[in-house]
Specification:
The complex is a heterodimer of chains A (420) and B (258). Chain A has 420 residues and is of the alpha/beta class. Chain A is built from 15 helices and 12 strands. Chain A has a 6-stranded parallel sheet. In chain A, helix 3 packs parallel to helix 4, helix 4 (152-161) crosses helix 6 and helix 7 crosses helix 8 (276-291). Chain B is α/β, with parallel strands linked by helices and 258 residues long. Chain B folds into 2 domains: 4-126, no CATH class; 135-254, no CATH class. Helix content of chain B is 42%, strand content 14%. The radius of gyration of chain B is 22 Å and the shape is elongated. The chains are: A alpha/beta (420), B alpha/beta (258). At the A-B interface, helix 1, strand 3, strand 4, strand 5 and helix 2 of A face helix 5, strand 4, helix 7 and helix 8 of B.
């Protein structure tokens, strides 16, 4: 290997790929048969962590940062004057194998700028995955980007070698897409997603009948949206996220706070702070939708277009629906328990188990580990002491905020609005 | 006052099981169990050396297995590997609870020893997972991928199957510097090895023993690592929470050679 050349390429192409948030390596199960390399148990491992606290579990690189498109939000856009580089297929394979053998990584996450056309690019990505699986007998994790506009045949082939496929839709609204990426069409993003979804369903059905049906993208699909690049509201973001979860059976939708990398009058100026707190609130909402049984219009709707930054979305929902509370911990069903602020799904199942033995009081709840500073105002238990709630939502909110601390405190607007 | 009995064993799991056998056999009510190499500074005690016998250990383990689930057996072994001082006594109390219970009742976490067992097992499990992540192999000139580690607990027996399945087509050694032994995979089986070459002071592999391209790959990994950080999102507290400083010594990316 010509190491000095590869060093240069790696620094350029790793740098360009780092804005992709997804780094999960779980969900793909491939057993090491025939003494090959790698054994994927379906659980991910984070092998290291960057200084911004994100996990490093995959070798995340671009095949090339040459691109025919000129999307305003992207570092590798055509009109941007940066160093360009491209890996050869064999170079990516060698890097992956050698990193994997040293236990640096769980596998490969390969993305690419689009050169020539979509199909040409997709073919190259598939070639890497194919070589790893067939020639190197590699069972580690492979995540490939579906290139927008790639043909159905190629998407079918990609899923046979990759564990996960993803298309980053990047801009949550169609109007935003038109503004920032005028050469890309919404349909181009949808097409490969649709194909992969159908193939996954198809292969699952077949594997029920024929045992040795090959695996097709066992870790499913994911996508990513940039937050805060165009003026979209949280409602727009979460509605389109819900759409992708429902329509394409997405495993995950990732939200990535926009990091200003370029000067462009359509975008936030350079030096604008990354909306880390907003990103966090969106993830909390995402969890509420996927695991807590909330539907999106309960949390975000026409009268409530954006999430509160100073309190979490569940607390915010509870304050708007105080008539449903207090809830009796010893009687309420699972669905209602999950809706109490300060109680997570783990606590819910512990409560359900524990209350079969005895009636729970405040000490039990504390030992179980629920966040009483929020929960106490919304529940009753086996005790005569509980909050008789005649507080208005606004009073309750300021009371809770006074007794809690947040690592995000510095972002909060100190002055509370007068008319809320 | 009856002097307290101290049972001294060789530090092996089988040895410990023989101690349990002895407490039942000789009806010792409140013994202290400790390893040979741990210091003894107690007055008015009787020390008794326990000889490790395979068949006795086997009998205890067989009985234990009849009364427990696979998960409980795993936890028992994990807690033993924690090597926390005095953990043998907690395990002995736990065994007594297990052997005296009539039904497979749901675990009652209000009993102190049972709670301790599940907590310590969790700690050891966490360390196991960390080691599966933080082992960094270096290719030596005799084509063995070698790694040195200093885990908080004795987790080599726990991580062995993971590495055996994953790296089935390469020879590797993982050496525990703290405890002075390692595991070596010779493409067929995993065996326990003792390498005099390593010691607490000489814990790293000297570069003249490495394969000629090894430093190049380490360099590439460092380049990759430094390029994936997004500077505008820097969060050192979170970084150290995920990657505690005590593990940095053996992480290639934290020992920049460039």
């Amino acid at each position: 290997m010509p190491f000095d050349k590869i060093q240069k390429k790696l620094s350029i192409l790793a740098d360009a790929a780092k804005y992709d948030v997804s780094c999960s390596s779980s969900g793909g199960k491939r057993n090491n048969t025939k003494k090959g390399l790698g054994n994927n148990t379906g659980f991910g491992i984070c092998h290291s962590y960057t200084e911004d606290g994100r996990c490093v579990s995959l070798l995340k690189i671009l095949l090339t940062n040459h691109c025919i498109y000129d999307c305003a939000y992207c570092v590798t856009r055509k009109s941007n004057d940066i160093k360009r580089a491209a890996f050869k297929i064999q170079e990516v394979v060698d890097l992956t194998i050698n990193f994997y053998r040293r236990n640096y990584i769980e596998g490969l996450f390969l993305s690419s700028g689009i050169f020539k056309n979509s199909d040409f690019t997709m073919e190259r990505l598939i070639a890497v995955a194919k070589k790893l699986r067939l020639e190197e007998n590699f069972n580690g994790y492979i995540h490939l980007k579906s290139i927008p506009g790639a043909s159905n045949e190629l998407m079918r082939e990609a899923g046979l070698y990759a564990d996960r496929l993803s298309v980053n839709i990047e801009i949550p609204t169609k109007s935003g897409l038109k503004l920032l990426a005028p050469d890309k069409k919404h349909e181009d993003f949808i097409k490969p997603m649709e194909k992969v979804k159908n193939e996954i369903i198809q292969y699952k059905k077949e594997s029920k009948i024929i045992k040795n049906t090959p695996k097709y993208a066992p870790a499913g699909q994911s996508t990513q949206m940039i937050i805060g690049a165009t003026g979209e509201s949280d409602r727009d973001i979460m509605y389109s996220a819900t759409y992708y979860y429902k329509k394409f059976n997405m495993r995950r939708v990732y939200y990535s706070g926009y990091i200003p990398v370029l000067e462009d009058n359509r975008l936030p100026a350079l030096g604008t702070e990354v909306p880390i707190l907003r990103e966090n609130r969106l993830y909390q909402t995402d969890w509420l939708l996927r695991f807590y049984g909330f539907s999106v219009n309960e949390i975000l709707n026409d009268s409530h277009k954006n999430l509160d930054l100073d309190i979490d979305p569940k607390l915010s929902w509870a304050l708007r629906n105080l008539d449903l509370f207090p809830i009796d911990i010893n009687r309420a069903d699972k669905r209602m328990l999950a809706r109490i602020p300060g109680i997570g799904m783990q606590s819910v199942s512990k409560i359900l188990q524990a209350r079969t033995f005895r009636k729970l009081d405040w000490t039990h709840l504390k030992a179980i580990g629920i966040a009483l500073n929020r929960a106490q105002y919304f529940i009753t238990c086996n005790s005569r002491n509980f909050h008789k709630s005649d507080l208005t939502p606004y009073q309750l909110k300021s009371k809770i905020l006074k007794t809690s601390t947040s690592k995000y405190q510095k972002f909060f607007n100190q002055q509370l609005s007068l008319f809320s | 006052m009856n002097p307290q009995t101290i049972l001294v064993y060789d530090g092996s799991f089988d040895g410990f099981l023989c101690c349990i056998f002895m407490t039942y056999d000789e009806k010792i009510t409140t013994p202290i169990i400790r390893k040979e190499y741990e210091s003894n500074n107690q007055l008015f005690t009787i020390s008794e050396k326990v000889v490790t016998e395979k068949n006795k250990a086997h009998r205890v383990w067989k009985g234990f297995k009849l009364k427990t689930t696979y998960h409980e057996q795993q936890n028992f072994f994990k807690v033993f590997l924690s090597e926390i001082k005095g953990v043998e006594n907690t395990l002995l109390n736990y065994t007594r609870i297990i052997f005296s219970r009539t039904t497979n009742t749901t675990t009652d976490f209000s009993t102190k020893d049972i709670l301790t067992i599940s907590q310590v097992a969790k700690m050891v499990g966490r360390e196991k997972h960390r080691m599966e992540a933080f082992v960094r192999f270096q290719l030596t000139s005799d084509t063995i991928y070698t790694a040195t580690i200093e885990p908080d607990f004795n987790v080599l027996p726990l991580i062995m199957p993971h590495f055996k399945d994953r790296y089935a087509d390469q020879k590797w050694i993982i050496y525990d510097i703290k405890r002075g032994y390692g595991i070596y995979y010779n493409l067929k089986t995993v065996e326990i090895v003792d390498i005099n070459f390593f010691s607490r002071k000489k814990s790293k592999i000297p570069s003249e023993l490495l394969s000629h391209t090894e430093k190049e790959f380490q360099n590439l990994w460092n380049i990759y690592y430094s390029n994936v950080t997004i500077p505008s999102r820097k969060n050192n507290k979170l970084h150290k929470q995920h990657l505690p400083k005590r593990y940095w010594k053996y992480l290639t990316e934290k020992n920049n050679i460039v």
